[in-house]
Design goal:
By secondary structure, this protein is an all-alpha fold. The protein has one domain. The chain is built from five helices and no strands. The protein has helices spanning about 1-35, 45-55, 60-95, 100-135, 140-150.
Amino acid sequence: MKPLKDLFLISVLSIVLMECTNVQKQELEADKAKIEVSAEEDISIRIDTMIKEAKWPTEEQKTRLFGLKEKTKNKIVEINIKLKKAKIVLVQHLVVKDSTNEKLRLLKKDIKKLYNQKVDVMLDAIEEARKILGKLDHVTQLDSMYHLYLLNEY
């Protein structure tokens, strides 16, 4: 009878956790819906202002965040250049050159790899930002702003 009881408890716990996740997803979607952004807007200026005006991080933390931002931006720019080149070559092989399926497969694989590198750089920077800010109660607000900043394509 114990395995059945354990299975029931696991099922109930799973349902509760799924409900919590759904509520959090809905809250995040509501937060996103409130923000006005155009496709052309460079949100980095908005995020920089939010970080500068935040009351609780020390000046040293803010300086380290801006240093992290610059380092991350440089890495992303480097990857974006490689991505642009790969996309141009892909179009050349689709339209201009007589290309094989294998060449196209290799180009698509390279483009995916570059996008994954870009995401890894951004996610690593988020973890670094968390270390800079520490585990304070205030981290969630500024951390969320920095996440948005890092997900912006430079």
